[in-house]
Design goal:
Elements: H1 4-22, H2 27-38, H3 51-65
Helix pairs in contact: 1-3, 2-3
């Protein structure tokens, strides 16, 4: 993950997961559901080759956000 766009996308994913957590959303359920959607049989063929890597990134970002301290808004 070296190029700028890749890092921007990772930051965006982290922000979405962290925001969901701060809103009280169960991020484990969110991330598991997103991963399941990626491997769903109804996904377009162009998505399928990227699904394992995308699921790994979701899981990685989930683990990172587990260490964040959230402030009630």
């Amino acid at each position: 993950m070296g190029d700028q766009r890749t890092m921007e996308l990772k930051q965006a994913l982290l922000a979405v997961i962290a925001t969901a957590a701060s809103m009280g959303i169960d991020v484990d359920v969110l991330c598991d559901s997103a991963g399941a959607d990626l491997i769903d049989d109804e996904q377009a063929d162009w998505v399928k080759p990227f699904a394992p890597g995308a699921i790994a990134e979701i899981d990685h970002c989930r683990k990172i956000t587990k260490g964040f301290q959230f402030v009630d808004r």
